[in-house]
Amino acid sequence: MTNMTDDSERPYVVLAERRVPVPRSISPEAQRKLAELADMPRTTFPDAQDEAGWRVSVAAQIEQELSMLPPGAAQNMAAGYGVDLTVGSVGDVPVHEATPHGWDENDKRVVLMLHGGGWIQGGGEMAAVMTVLEAGTLGLPVRGVDYRMAPDHPYPAPLDDCLAVYRALLKETDPRLIAITGTSAGANLAAATVLRARDEGLPVPGAMSLWSPSVDLTRDGDTWHTLDGLDPIIGRHMGTLMDYYARGQDPRDPYLSPVFGDLSGFPPTLLGSGTRDGLLSDTVRFHRALRRAGVDAQLHVHEAMTHSAFFGGAPEEAEVGAEVRAFVHEHLRTGKEDDGA
Length: 341
Description:
By secondary structure, the protein is an alpha/beta fold. The chain has ten helices and ten strands. It has an eight-stranded mixed sheet with strand order 3-4-6-5-7-8-9-10, sandwiched between helices. A hairpin with a 2-residue loop joins strand 3 (83-90) and strand 4 (93-100). The chain is globular.
């Protein structure tokens, strides 16, 4: 049944309450994780203008996040994955560096990873953990940017930090040897970093991988509504989080919502999502926007996968990692050839 709303005059469809079973089409491990996620309580966020409320909310979420990590989690994970983990900086921006053991110093390939977390969490020890995980998955050196975040540093501070690290990396690395990766808010920053770098006359990287990218802060994508309540992480309850990051800026600004930007000249890009990812529409729309701009873009959509490929170590997660690894290795030169090779 289609009706017209009184306020927006937009047509809508009314659906009766229905049961959505965990599909048998995914691995037993993924089925178990999906069932667990269904019982996960949703985070509630304050109004975007409630500064005090946001400070309390962010502090609580970071505390909960860190409580999930055992002491020395990043270094222990580094040992398990066979990578060396250090931390450097670009100006005041910490950068976690994870390098596979025995890496050939003549091979200059590197991955710039931008962590997710809604522009409010995912930094510090968690950023180090994610940097190690990326290096172990891709088999390449990874630099994870520990960018500034809200509430003290909303837009454009996180993007400024990511661009600063990319700019510094260009001084020592051929852009064709750089891949940029990101998930969720990190994917937003990855796309915005490439867009702004190109606009400022910098060369774009050799490849980009975006998983569950949040590329439209107007929240107009179809699955923002159709999967609301089905994705345990992403839903309309998170709209205020995007408003808090933007802080009154036009959400259609391409540096906030890259789907509205001129994407010509972007590098080959892999995009990934799942059929239960609230940002599936963002992912699909960005893929189409890249294709319209003539960019080599691949879209991978996985059965029943929720936001950020979160399947608790199920085989599907290994498949995601293998796809990203193959794509990045395909599009980056080895770094050993000279320019005339």
